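Thread amino acids onto this structure.
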């Protein structure tokens, strides 16, 4: 279990992900320190801009973890993965979220608001935030990615 007081989370979404972003902030993330990097409406925005903001904050160490939300999570994962030291994982359910942390030490979770329901997304985020990195043989592999 993570110490919520010590965990700052950066979050961002495009227009498709905005409602889910708000639902997560109001529920699963309510006890965490959250850095909300937009967007703040359903007005169209370009997801790479939001992905870069969140990934840059995580890469610089101003947040330990990041969450990005677009329609499918795919575009956000691709864009965030371009930033140094970011291991972005697109997950649609808790099992993938757990393994992204245990085996890949993912530091950015990407969700798809059009493919994952609100309750499933909440559970996925909870599992992701509370799963530690296993290290061991997985650390060697993560080092190769870096």
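Threaded sequence (146 positions):
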């Amino acid at each position: 279990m993570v110490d919520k007081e010590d965990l700052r989370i950066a979050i961002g979404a495009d227009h498709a992900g905005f409602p889910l972003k708000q639902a997560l902030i109001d529920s699963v993330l309510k006890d965490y320190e959250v850095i909300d990097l937009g967007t703040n409406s359903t007005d169209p925005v370009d997801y790479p801009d939001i992905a870069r903001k969140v990934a840059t904050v995580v890469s610089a160490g101003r947040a330990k973890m990041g969450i990005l939300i677009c329609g499918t999570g795919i575009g956000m994962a691709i864009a965030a993965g371009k930033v140094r030291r970011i291991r972005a994982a697109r997950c649609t359910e808790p099992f993938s979220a757990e393994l992204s942390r245990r085996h890949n030490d993912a530091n950015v979770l990407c969700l798809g608001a059009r493919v994952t329901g609100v309750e499933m997304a909440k559970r996925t985020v909870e599992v992701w935030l509370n799963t530690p990195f296993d290290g061991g043989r997985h650390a060697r592999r993560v080092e190769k990615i870096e």
